[in-house]
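re: ur msg from earlier - yeah i can do the heme C complex, just paste it... oh wait u already did. ok heres what im feeding in:
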Amino acid sequence: MKPRPWIVWVGICGAVVLAELILSSCASVQRTVLAPPEIEGATYVGNKVCADCHATVTRGFSASVHARLHFEGSPMAGQSGCESCHGPASKHVQSGGGRGRFIVNPRQDPATCFQCHLDVHAEFKLPQHHPVTEGRMNCTQCHDPHGVDIMKPAGGLAMARLNQACAQCHRDQSRPFVFEHEAMREGCTICHNPHGSINAKLLVQRDNNLCLRCHVQVQGAGNRIFIGKTDHTTRGDTSLRIGSCSTAGCHTAVHGSNVNRTLLY
Ligand code: HEC
Ligand code: HEC
Ligand code: HEC
Ligand code: HEC
Ligand code: HEC
Ligand code: HEC
Ligand code: HEC
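and the outut:
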């Protein structure tokens, strides 16, 4: 029998203090779960049971966004959490637990995550993507499914954090430079989509358009084109004609440079 789709939603509330009043605003995001993970003959037992044997995993979980999911019209109604990713666990519990014992572990196969995050699945299908669907990487290298904070590593300034997650694997781009490119302070994701993109190098936009979002191109007297204080017409007009600011001969050191202030090399 084909499993019926469920509706899952999460209520995200924020409180705003205005003068003496506290206004709270809530938004809910609804998703359809295509097919929850199935384990033949098993039923849902709820989070409390897991805590008996998995205290470390359960500890921070109540603050995680996935602990706030609500399931309508499903066998998980009134519960939240663990079994939405790991599948119904009655047989796992009855058998005393154990690795590979009547339980789903989404580490190697992100299919469980994609059941709810269809948009993310679509990103990983784009021509350029981090090799997660190929099994060379997994979601948990950048996300913590059980932690207080789903973004890894937790703590610190949000943008600095994003760079740190990327730094584990991309040292060349993340190290400190003598001449920094200030754009890096916004985090890597200001220029790259961490999941996938239609553009080469996972860029959020193609060619000059990426740079011109922050650097204004100004037309001066005699049809001269200025970017910042620099006249780009006298430079053989390459950036503008080639269409890319970071091609050979131009600003190849987009992430920063130890030798050149204008990030040419
Ligand atoms: C958002 C989906 C998701 C939810 C919700 C979730 N988990 Fe997990 N769980 C994962 C993923 C992904 C892994 C693999 C982590 C890894 O090894 O990188 C995992 C791994 C585990 C492991 C194995 C840990 C190990 O050391 O190999 C246990 C035990 C576990 N989860 C228990 C739980 C319990 C208990 C809950 C509820 C409190 C829970 N999970 C909620 C996704 C989830
Ligand atoms: C009676 C104790 C017990 C209970 C209750 C229990 N587990 Fe486990 N579970 C274990 C043991 C033991 C392991 C193996 C851990 C290891 O080898 O490090 C395990 C492993 C796991 C794994 C890793 C499986 C793998 O193949 O990598 C997951 C995921 C998991 N449990 C989820 C859950 C969830 C979700 C619940 C609650 C619904 C739960 N467990 C309840 C004892 C239990
Ligand atoms: C049962 C459905 C369901 C499953 C399974 C699930 N998620 Fe989620 N997840 C949600 C919902 C609903 C939200 C909150 C709404 C949103 O921000 O998309 C959420 C939020 C998130 C967020 C935070 C988004 C933000 O903006 O803060 C991340 C990251 C995430 N999930 C990753 C994962 C990963 C990785 C897995 C698999 C290990 C997974 N999810 C499995 C339903 C699910
Ligand atoms: C290379 C690191 C990396 C990997 C691998 C990764 N993510 Fe993400 N993900 C991020 C970053 C960084 C953000 C925040 C993006 C932003 O704020 O611009 C994010 C955001 C999200 C969000 C919330 C925003 C959105 O795009 O909907 C979800 C949900 C999510 N990821 C799910 C997943 C799932 C599921 C997987 C595995 C299939 C995965 N991610 C793998 C880095 C990663
Ligand atoms: C766990 C290791 C890991 C993490 C963390 C990681 N990446 Fe990657 N990244 C890879 C791998 C593997 C590839 C694919 C390289 C290949 O195919 O040769 C890649 C490819 C890329 C590429 C494309 C390079 C090219 O030549 O096309 C970019 C850009 C990139 N990553 C940016 C990021 C950003 C931004 C982050 C943080 C949000 C990040 N990566 C986090 C491992 C990682
Ligand atoms: C100002 C925009 C911008 C920011 C911010 C940015 N990048 Fe890039 N990145 C680029 C461009 C443009 C390229 C392509 C350069 C080229 O054409 O070879 C690139 C290429 C890459 C590549 C591929 C390198 C190669 O040799 O193929 C990786 C990996 C990468 N970036 C990682 C990161 C990481 C990690 C961060 C954050 C620490 C980051 N980027 C921040 C614009 C940016
Ligand atoms: C998120 C905004 C942002 C993006 C996107 C961005 N930059 Fe920047 N860039 C800055 C800021 C801010 C500065 C420092 C102030 C200034 O010089 O305009 C800077 C400085 C520079 C400088 C040094 C200028 C000087 O005279 O010292 C160069 C060169 C540069 N960027 C090139 C690029 C290129 C090439 C791209 C596209 C790959 C790009 N930038 C994308 C924000 C950005």
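cool cool. Residues 130-131, 136-137, 141-142, 162, 165-166, 168-170, 188, 192, 194, 201-202 surround heme C (ligand 5) (CB under 6 Å). ping me if u need the other ligands too
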